[in-house]
């Protein structure tokens, strides 16, 4: 059986050959770049029509369509990531986690920001002192139930 | 010697008595709520004039001023945070970390988003399906050196 | 400042002296036993009117009221619990976790059961071969967003 | 020798080709969906007659029958699961573990809920505010021996 | 409130002063030495009448009686014990664990030996080549449920 | 070179085909079932004449004889075992480890039970309330040296 | 697709056959030995013209050029390195980490030395009591932002 | 007995009151700032005459002299440091550890850089693009023995 | 009750005041320095007559005598020690552990060196290239039982 | 390319076929058994002439000569070894580590025993109460630098 790993490898290979960026691919299937990359890596499931579009866009074999639409099991192996680019985000959670919690409670009450009903974007912001990476996340507020 | 933990306890107590929010305190000292909370928790150093303002705003003893201005040692004890509100951000780094890395490289080249020359905000976005938490981060892009 | 730990200790002491069960306390404040115990342990926040009721029911000092209503930081120190009664639930998650995931996806699609918009009960079911513990959990289904 | 992993792969492949759900398979062999999935994943042993039924239902090779009936060694590799759907159950054990223990003791005495003489179901409960996942577990109460 | 730790300290002190062995204490309360030590350490709950006997035998304050009867939370802090005497038992589980499992399955079917409905003894066996420690455990066989 | 893993696989396959139990094999080579299983799993070395008997009993290739007689390196990968049948023994060490130590010291002095000069058996004990697993271990007492 | 691991293996093989040192290779491509080794190991990305030079210098297949220029994911598997030569550097960070932090703050203010805008060299310093290894690191100072 | 922790606290307090930098203190006792800070933190032992100088310079009680001269036990509690300033050095060891090893072997043979016969300095290097932190380490080369 | 930690602190204090070395103390009680230090640290039990000698030698209170004679629980908190002097021994076990095992098996058969019936010494060996630390360990060979 | 693992496998196979002991091999190449085994396992580098001797002695292919002479990367995967024979040495470091440190400091000053300029032997010592394993280690004393 074809696995999500197999399809990810095919996508990466096709992307390199075609010289496309993730932004290009995202545009072709009408989704955002963050979500598109994540789903292509096997960390999100493609809705059926997007799976079909992905197969045509990247020239994948037909069997890949159902694989792209399967629910993934999200596994990461490093509890503390070592890659410096990813570690910096881990560090931000370590340093500012209690702050995010305190401000969410101040603005909403006792609850959390959903990581499921969630979206995110990455943009480049020009700046004379050096361009900046801007990351925007938005998740539904979920208040704790009392019963 | 007075420690940062001592001063944090005094701030929390004064804040409760005064019925102030972090937003109120941040306004009073002319800084953002995220930074203000984080520095009050002892995770960032107050610039001298902000330390002085903090002392008057919260009615802290004079000795607190120099303590607020000291460089903190940033320690968190849970490599994987258990509080659900903080864990969701950890989970986002686990699931989307490779995506953030891929898009930063696509837009900037081989490098990272700084977690030092960095700022962040939390806002409440009204939404008929349930209000949303919006988190915006911005950090300077730092490209790897080759030498 | 009075902490959640202080109030928990007061509740346990008052409960012992009064010879009350968690079920009794829950009845008095009009909440379920699971939620009541959890909130009394400092793992959930009492809504204001329940905090007030708790103070009268257990004869706590007035200051406890606001402490009971504060948002808790949920911390557990053993990633793998050692107490046999708690470990068995950990074991169930280890053995049946992938099964719970597969069936939720089969019945709902790609998503999770919320642990925030969530409730739970524990009941005793008589059985000639030995009475049984019945645990019922219910959480809102949250489908992953694609964007 | 054919292993449980081999048979699991065959079942998943046959299930996909046949377009069956776990509920369909469970019905065919007269067992519950939770148990059927778990046993098919190699986490439980099929009683001989169920192993035989499974072989016919899924069109497996004859050798699979004895493999399905073997006692499994239950191994999970992530002490803290990363998949969000499974993590939420881990989180429930972390947050409510002491509560489950306290209420079991209140209702039964000093003991545990068995995870061996145990059953579980997952159902979808319709709800105007969003359908809910209902998980019901039942395990025999086992009281500690004193001797 | 008096805790189990407090009572354990009182028992150890009284035992030393009285020059009693665990065997002596066990005899006095009519229980086995293994169970008596374990319960005195706060790892098992005394049935009410044994708690009363323990209080008289060791000359404990009256309040200790209800503390001895409370259900303990069983916590050990070293996942791998360092004390050589305890480590050897850990090593036996590491080396012979799969063997114990295989033989239990051969003799009983798919299931486990209960660690709850369980008893254990330690005896000294004379031997010309050096006396031997004999440990006998017995636990109820619990077969896995299929449902 | 043939490894212990290779020989273990051959033994398991031959055992299945011959429909033998571990007890049968142990009888054939004149050793106990616990030791026989453990050595067959590669966790103990066969004395030369037992290795020869094992080769004839199970119909193994000649090369296996010297492999069975080699000293094994005893490795287990899970510091805390997840299989419920093995975990229960780990739990017993966690709960009763300090008790075993205290009673060994009471009966023998400051020392340990050897896990090297050691033997163990597993038997089924009939019991109207449910049959019981009986595990007996015996190891030489080793007293600490002072020098 | 050719991976960074593949290219690293080719470089090591070509280096051995040609009898070159890392210093020789670094000279040929006009970079420092530290950076050259690190990039050849797949821990840094070659700028395009250096990738081209590397391909000619080491006689690599053409496809290697684009692989050398890709952004690496920096992964190390041992949180605490075991090799004695690498461990000593880990030990230096453990022993002198707080000192490095204190002196950077004394000389610059609250901030860090960048590990991204960074360079390093290793030299041999002759010394009658035994030659010494000299390691020089230089990284841009980055001051914490307050906002 | 006065401990190294006690003396460190006295030094920090005296340093703050006197408004001295580590460089000032180092000058006064004729040692380098890196070594002085490290020894003051209790991570190195003061030679007797330096201990005496330290007592006079910082106005410490006489008993501190012998404490400063004691051999320390070097303990750090975070295997992976969380403070960003210290983490960056850990990251450098993770990324460049194998490179340091390869170049030391190329220049010296099979061996290591000593972390005991070792010295280090931190300097500020002016730079129009942003000043840089320069860290220089030097340790004696130690070649592996063969015997 | 006086604990082993209390007595260790008294010994260290008395030793400092008296200006004695471990060798001096060992001589006074007629034991080796390694054993004496270890027992004084609470890692070994003093035989009764040695406990009495220790009390007179160091001028300890009478109650210390029985405490010194108690069986210790041997606990170390760092699975991997950080102090460089202790780490080097850990490193030797990591690098040469399989070698020690292979040679013990070659010389004795399948078994181990006892760490219980064990003794050790540390001596200084003069050497023109730098004096050397000599550590000698001797433990009884224990052969694995087969049964 | 041939790796150290490949050569180790060839040596083990040749050793078995030739019926040689490590002592025999060590004699043939004029080195000690401890060092010879360790280097054959790939944990030490053969000096060129010893590598040549090893190739002739064991009948290895010519390419093995340069592989034996390469600097190894010393990796062990179990922070706490499970094999009982190796674990006992780990236990000795845990129990006696602080003692080794204290006596080295008493005899030499503040420093360590080198694990690099180091040698070790294993011998069998006859003893009527059971033969003993004698392990002798010697490493150069290295005193901490102050600067």
UniProtKB/TrEMBL annotation, chains A, B, C, D, E, F, G, H, I, J:
The keyword Phosphoprotein does not apply. Keywords: Lyase. CDD domains: Cyanase_C (cd00559). Residues 75-147 form the Cyanate lyase C-terminal domain. InterPro entries: Cyanase, Cyanate_lyase_C, Cyanate_lyase_C_sf, CYNS_N, Lambda_DNA-bd_dom_sf. It catalyses: cyanate + hydrogencarbonate + 3 H(+) = NH4(+) + 2 CO2. The active site is at residues 88, 91, 114. Its EC number is 4.2.1.104. GO terms for molecular function: cyanate hydratase activity; DNA binding. It comes from the Bacteria. The keyword Lyase applies. Catalyzes the reaction of cyanate with bicarbonate to produce ammonia and carbon dioxide. HAMAP family: Cyanate_hydrat (MF_00535). Belongs to the cyanase family. This is Cyanate hydratase. It comes from Yoonia sediminilitoris.
